[in-house]
Amino acid sequence: MNAVIDNVYAIILAAGASSRMGSPKQLLEWRNRPLLEHTIANARAIWGERIVVVLGAHAESIRTTVDLGAVTSIVNPDWQEGMASSIRAGVQALPESARSPSD
User: Fold this and answer.
1) In 3D, which of 98, 92, 90, 101 has the Cα closest to residue 12?
2) Which of the listed residues 14, 21, 35, 59 has the most CB atoms within 10 Å of its CB?
């Protein structure tokens, strides 16, 4: 892998309640797989396993339905506070070796 991006991680935000939709968007089926699985697969193509998935409202059902593979998944206990809290939780879950794209 390229040394410049070896320690850059992707953070996938999947903590929302999907309240207007009435069911978790992360679990919507598209081409026989949940949308979140497609998102993870696309991120893996670029980042390998250097991915943090931030779950929240439907964490348990997502973990039992979606193949998260070897990526890191965490639950944002403050997901109700909004997207910024999920970004914060994802950044806090990164290993110390992780770099910012601006580093």
Assistant:
1) 90
2) 14
Q: Which ranges of the chain does DSSP label H, i.e. alpha helix?
A: 35-47, 59-65, 83-92
Report the domain count for the chain: 1
Would strands 51-55 and 33-34 be described as parallel, antiparallel, or unpaired?
Answer: unpaired
Report which of residues 100 and 76 the model is more confident about: 76
Does the residue 1 lie in any domain?
no
Nearest to 55 by CA among 44, 33, 39: 39
| Within-domain flag for 65 | yes
Residue 98, domain member (yes or no): no
Q: Is the pLDDT of residue 6 over 60?
A: yes
3-state secondary structure of 76: coil
* Reported pTM: 0.88
Q: Which amino acid is at 6?
A: D
Query: pLDDT per residue over 21-75, tens digit each?
Result: 888 889 889 999 999 999 999 999 998 999 999 999 999 999 999 999 899 999 9
